[in-house]
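For the sake of transparency, this paper describes our internal protein records without simplification. Such a record has a labelled line for the sequence and another for the backbone structure tokens. Nothing more is needed to write down the fold, since each code stands for a local backbone conformation. For reference, a complete record is included directly beneath this paragraph.
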Amino acid sequence: MRVNIIGGGIAGCALAYMISQEGGEPVIYEAGPSLYEGEAPEHDCSTYNPRYCAQWDANAKYYSMGYFEALRLFDEFAEEGLDFRWDQCGTLQLLANERKAKRYRKCVASWNANGWGEDDLRLVSSQEASDIAGVEVEHEGMYLKRAGVLSPARICSRLIKGVEVKLNQWVEDVSALSGDATVLACGTKVKNFKEAAHLPITPVRGQVTYIRESAASAKVKATVNYGGHISPSLNGVQYIGATFQPWLKHTNILPEDDVTNIKNLCERFPALAEKYEVVDSKAGVRSAVRDHFPVIGQLTDRIYVSSGHGSHGFISSLSSAIILAKKIVKNEDVVSDDVTKQMSAERFW
């Protein structure tokens, strides 16, 4: 089965990999000159973790599938000797206010009751959070021991190994493509196609900042989420972010966004407050949906969609890829009815 994939970002690359695993023949059409949102920074790095939900609902089931698939793939790729800057350093989500504390406590209780062991997810005291983070933390934390950071660009390069990729290929009409099925996996650009023009998918711009480590920040041992986030040091460089700008649609680097990211870090952690050297920056526009859940599934007889993956794009893209690959190549459903209903485009009308 030949499956056309429109878009060479994480969603498209993950889908190409899963299609291949199911015995299909994926072909990626990317409008730009390279995959994964253009040229990656020298210090390309990104966090990976699921989207947290207070209850064990369709959202939790969906993101859990992608998270554990990611861990499986990372182990497999690491055994191959692939250098994708994987640091399973753990992720700490701070319970910085009462609203977050209530939500994350419910999350831990419900997820632990549905297959997530304490080695995967647990609550920690402020003292243990400080020991995990390597920097003083004033709040309790929700700790994911196996989450961390990696290079999305390098992962994408591995995911499309052996896949036919057509760069600088702007597709205007999917009916002009040969093949058995076509998947629109090009973020907000899916709305350029008449089959998906009605979907309520909107752009959200974000910029991350790569800073030269300081003596204090070099002590950070885990990814710490505090509204923003900071990663451990890699070759003397740390990753912080990110801005949230749904009113912007460009990917030009804004120096003031780097100032904002550094300011937020210093305000949250006084021990890390100092003047940092900005080594690099990266801006991206992700696709978002108002109910914070992606749109996945069949639009017409031969056309499918995978978009709206938002700020948890890597994990969401893997879940989407598993679901669509099984459905398109083998006509198998691999998720429960509540997940199918939640991700369907039909939920909007």
Q: What stands out?
A: The radius of gyration is 20 Å. The first helix runs from residue 10 to 21. Helices lie at 10-21, 58-80, 98-112, 126-133, 152-159, 255-268, 313-330, 337-343.
